[in-house]
Amino acid sequence: MKNRLKSLSPQFKKILKISSQIAHDSGHKIYLVGGVVRDLLLGRQVFDLDIAVEGDAIFFVERLAKHLGENFKRHHSFGTATLYHHGHKIDFATSREEKYSQAGALPKVKAAELKKDLWRRDFTINAMAISLNRQDYGGLIDFYGGRADLEKGLIRVLHPESFLDDSLRVLRAVRFEQRFSFKIENKTDSLMSQAIGAGALGWVNPHRLRDELILLLSEPSPYRYIKRFYSLERFNFIDKSLSLNKKDFRFFIRVQSMVNFYNQKLKRREIKVWVIYLAGILINLPSKDISQITAKFGFKKGERIIISSIKEGLKEVGKLNKKMKPSQIHKIMDKYSYEAVLFFYAYFPQALLRKNLRLFLNELSFLKLETAGRDLKKLGVESSSLMGQILRELLYLKLDQGLRTKREELRAVKKILKIK
After folding, report:
1. 268 CB contacts (<8 Å, ≥6 apart)?
2. Rounded Cα distance, 351 and 354, in Å
3. The domain defined by 211-316+324-366 carries CATH number 1.10.3090.10
4. Three-state SS across the chain?
5. Is the pLDDT of residue 105 over 70?
6. pLDDT tens-digit series, residues 181-221
7. What is the rounded CA–CA span in Å between residue 256 and residue 112?
8. How many CB atoms lie within 10 A of CB 190?
9. From the centroid of its chain, how far is CA 247?
């Protein structure tokens, strides 16, 4: 595995070497663990590091941070710490074991040796480690057959109670299966079906479900993930009345095309692509139910507003299926986020409506006035509300008449004010 470690960024390699030295000097044992080991074996790019410490992880990171001259965040209740170095994130955790008092509950944890720490993980492919200790630096530690499952392309849990202990692993199983084009191992598939049948996802805190759902919908080409998960659980953990049909799945494919177009051609700002997919999953539910669901799962206010605006805006945006002036299109669409506009474009099939949406995206949405309030003050306008009305009317004139320069805008303002 030493050769695999050479593929890491120079910053990461520096961190690992320094950490190894500090571990040797302080009597700690440290290991790369989890997804980073899996991704190194797969030859995939690594963006973050997870390091398990046999001993006090916070004490260890204090020494490392002092050596690097960096700040770090400590979490005493979990025995973890996070250090940021040159834009990279490195998580350190005290090696531990977990005990579940009941299915779906958060586990009780206590410090333990590495073997027990790896046993608590979700799947064998995520239960490997690489030693960062001087005596066996770069050595692969694989107690549970993770490398063999990785080579076979299998998703396998470590023990029969895994999905009952933490049913979020159902979502993760689908995520890894689709991301790597792997297969869920037969016994694991059976255990997963049993957990789903028992309603295990309903035992989990909604906020934890939200975070895992966001991860799933943030994967490349979420259509495959949505279709696969729907075939297993139908998103009953969100709402038992939720249903998707062929039309909805075709919509998800169109969303991907529209998002690609936005990122390649427009990219006004970063968008939350997962919000568009979540709105598509929820869109057939009543508005009241959607509001209750997004509140229950603790989505941020801005995210809830986007999803609600999409549901409430379907009828209004449907009016765009006719020839309209640019100003009329702008009046309808200007209040919507880019996420909502992309949703509407994928949702509505009508050619004319889409043409109007394209015009809004390509031109109208970023057209700005060169004239400002201070220019109106020079013309004798003092009222802020009147300024707002004039600037709005001026923008619509610019949209419809193609005003190009500030001089043309001011000429139009004088006409509005009836100034010669």
Report:
1. 338, 365, 366
2. 5
3. yes
4. CHHHHCCCCHHHHHHHHHHHHHHHHHCCEEEEECHHHHHHHHCCCCCEEEEEEECCHHHHHHHHHHHHCCCEEEECCCCEEEEEECCEEEEEEECEEEECCCCCCCCEEEECCHHHHHHCCCEHHHCCEEECCHHHCCCEECCCCHHHHHHHCEECECCCCHHHHCCHHHHHHHHHHHHHCCEECHHHHHHHHHHHHCCHHHHCCHHHHHHHHHHHHCCCCHHHHHHHHHHHHCCCCCCCCCCCCHHHHHHHHHHHHHHHHHHHHHCCCCCCHHHHHHHHHHCCCCHHHHHHHHHHCCCCHHHHHHHHHHHHHHHHHHHHCCCCCHHHHHHHHCCCCHHHHHHHHHHCCCHHHHHHHHHHHHCHHHCCCCCCHHHHHHCCCCCHHHHHHHHHHHHHHHHHHCCCCHHHHHHHHHHHHCCC
5. no
6. 999 999 999 999 999 999 999 999 999 999 999 999 999 99
7. 44
8. 12
9. 25
CA 151 to chain centre: 28
Chain CA centroid to CA 364, Å? 29
Listed in sequence order, the residues at least 6 apart from 373 whose beta carbon sits closer than 8 Å to its beta carbon are: 384, 387, 391
**pLDDT given for residue 101 in this prediction:** 64
Q: Where are the domains of the chain?
A: 2-155, 211-316+324-366, 373-417
| Cα-trace Rg, the chain | 27
What CATH superfamily is the domain 2-155?
Beta Polymerase, domain 2 (3.30.460.10)
pLDDT tens sequence across 267-294: 788 999 999 999 999 999 999 999 999 9
